[in-house]
């Protein structure tokens, strides 16, 4: 008995083929099985079922789109484009295929290609009666592309049909947030906050931003961000993904995260190129509910990464009191910290016997901070140890030219004694007053050098 032939329709309702009824039925069933696996995140099993469908019915555009989606979720964007384009050959007005292609091109950084497919999809979406999920996917794709204004306009046009579509509510809510239509955004996101944790986080941040009169940076939607993390991409690229950047920013306000986790996320944000992130962070420095340690760290990171200039005046609330500090003060404090860190690293290398590495570190540090006498003193002492006395002497004298200080004078005294230049040692030593020394270590050094000079002079008299 010959199986009955039945019409197969496109996404817009026109008949594009006639196929045996049993093949269509089996294809629909296997496609549904594949989708069950896809929803559970089991993409490999899903791909196997979609391929089964296509072996019997190669022009089944729904299976081709689902296969494209599965490869998209696997991070195989070129394959996703290939299968979505095959779906378009079978169904030339399939806007879901166009949305999948556009998102894949965005993931590959090919924005012009993405734009052309989105424009075609948008020209068709009001022309035909597409399924709700197709429209939701288009809105998502436009948000992913970065055109929040258009995404919000499309959502508003179809809002009556999308009341119960989670993806549309999330994408529409994000588009509204980015367009600063916070009331509309909250209205949409409230409907899904119990199902979508990210929607709840956005609502909380909208409330925070409004209370503090801050502008939220652009919020991203999680389409391929998780796959970006698994592909070992450069961290600078990850930091400019809108979704990952958004999550990192939101994490600073979570009570369930440790300070170390927040600091790690803050450092990640510093790699972003989005000025709106840094303006937002500047605005939270007067939040008296945010931990003081975190605010100090935010301030330090902003300055260290070039987002604060010497002329800036920054307000920060610490211990419940708001004060204004200049960018010059902050940058000087950071410079001191960096110099101290270099000195400590150099001394650690020296103490562990890695003299050459310590010497190289201090030479590079002097290139970076040429007006820091402590760096010259530490390098000179390494050269003293290596018996390179002439260069050591020049370095000690250079440190005194930069800033007259007892540390340099005492170390130069020690050098002259080592070189048996007792008269010069006594002369430079006499310019240091013990009572002016505040550190116990310097006082002990003073006492030792005093005894050494006396000993040298006694030896000279005896001889």
Please tell me about this protein's structure:
- By secondary structure, the protein is mainly alpha-helical.
- It has four domains: 1-130, Tetratricopeptide repeat domain (Serine Threonine Protein Phosphatase 5, Tetratricopeptide repeat, Alpha Horseshoe), CATH 1.25.40; 146-224; 233-331, no CATH class; 371-462, Tetratricopeptide repeat domain (Serine Threonine Protein Phosphatase 5, Tetratricopeptide repeat, Alpha Horseshoe).
- It contains 24 helices and four strands.
- The chain has helices at 21-39, 43-56, 61-73, 77-90, 95-107, 111-125, 132-145, 148-158, 166-178, 182-190, 197-211, 225-230, 235-239, 242-251, 259-269, 275-283, 292-304, 327-351, 355-368, 373-385, 389-402, 406-418, 422-429, 440-462; strands at 5-9, 15-20, 313-318, 321-326.
- The strands form two sheets. It has a two-stranded antiparallel sheet with strand order 1-2.
- The longest helix has 25 residues, at 327-351.
- The protein is elongated and about 125 Å long.
- 35% of the residues are buried.
- The model has no long low-confidence stretch (mean pLDDT 91).
Set down the secondary structure blueprint.
Blueprint: E1 5-9, E2 15-20, H1 21-39, H2 43-56, H3 61-73, H4 77-90, H5 95-107, H6 111-125, H7 132-145, H8 148-158, H9 166-178, H10 182-190, H11 197-211, H12 225-230, H13 235-239, H14 242-251, H15 259-269, H16 275-283, H17 292-304, E3 313-318, E4 321-326, H18 327-351, H19 355-368, H20 373-385, H21 389-402, H22 406-418, H23 422-429, H24 440-462
Antiparallel strand pairs: 1-2, 3-4
């Amino acid at each position: 008995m010959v199986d009955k032939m039945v019409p197969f329709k496109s996404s817009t309702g026109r008949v594009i083929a006639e196929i045996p009824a049993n093949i269509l039925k089996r294809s629909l069933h296997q496609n549904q099985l594949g989708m069950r696996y896809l929803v559970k995140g089991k993409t490999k099993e899903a791909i196997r079922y979609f391929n089964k469908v296509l072996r019997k019915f190669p022009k089944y555009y729904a299976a081709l789109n689902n296969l494209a989606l599965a490869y998209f979720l696997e991070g195989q964007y070129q394959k996703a484009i290939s299968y979505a384009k095959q779906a378009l050959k079978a169904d030339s007005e399939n806007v879901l295929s166009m949305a999948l292609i556009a998102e894949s091109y965005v993931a590959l950084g090919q924005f012009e290609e993405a734009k052309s497919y989105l424009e075609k999809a948008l020209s068709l979406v009001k022309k035909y009666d597409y399924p709700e999920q197709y429209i939701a996917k288009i809105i998502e794709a436009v948000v992913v592309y970065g055109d929040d204004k258009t995404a919000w306009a499309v959502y508003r046009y179809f809002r009556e049909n999308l009341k119960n579509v989670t993806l549309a509510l999330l994408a529409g809510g994000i588009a509204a947030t980015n367009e600063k239509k916070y009331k509309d955004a909250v209205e949409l996101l409230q409907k899904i906050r119990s199902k979508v944790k990210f929607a709840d986080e956005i609502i909380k941040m909208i409330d925070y931003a409004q209370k503090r009169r801050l502008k939220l940076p652009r919020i991203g939607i999680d389409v391929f961000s998780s796959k970006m993390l698994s592909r070992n991409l450069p961290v600078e690229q990850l930091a400019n993904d809108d979704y990952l950047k958004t999550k990192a920013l939101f994490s600073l306000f979570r009570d369930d995260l440790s300070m170390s986790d927040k600091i790690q996320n803050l450092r990640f944000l510093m790699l972003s190129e989005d000025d709106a992130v840094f303006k937002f962070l500047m605005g939270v420095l007067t939040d008296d509910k945010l931990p003081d340690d975190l605010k100090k760290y935010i301030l330090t990171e902003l300055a260290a990464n070039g987002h604060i200039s010497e002329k800036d005046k920054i307000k920060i609330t610490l211990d419940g009191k708001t004060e204004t500090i200049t960018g010059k003060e902050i940058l000087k404090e950071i410079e001191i910290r960096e110099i101290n860190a270099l000195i400590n690293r150099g001394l650690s290398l020296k103490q562990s016997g890695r003299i050459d590495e310590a010497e190289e570190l201090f030479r590079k540090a002097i290139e970076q901070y040429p007006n820091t006498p402590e760096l010259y003193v530490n390098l000179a002492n390494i050269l003293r140890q290596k018996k390179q006395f002439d260069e050591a002497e020049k370095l000690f004298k250079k440190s005194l030219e930069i800033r007259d200080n007892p540390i340099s004078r005492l170390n130069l005294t020690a050098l002259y004694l080592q070189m048996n230049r007792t008269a010069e040692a006594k002369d430079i030593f006499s310019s240091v007053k013990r009572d002016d020394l505040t550190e116990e270590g310097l006082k002990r050094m003073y006492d030792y050098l005093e005894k050494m000079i006396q000993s040298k002079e006694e030896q000279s008299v005896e001889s």
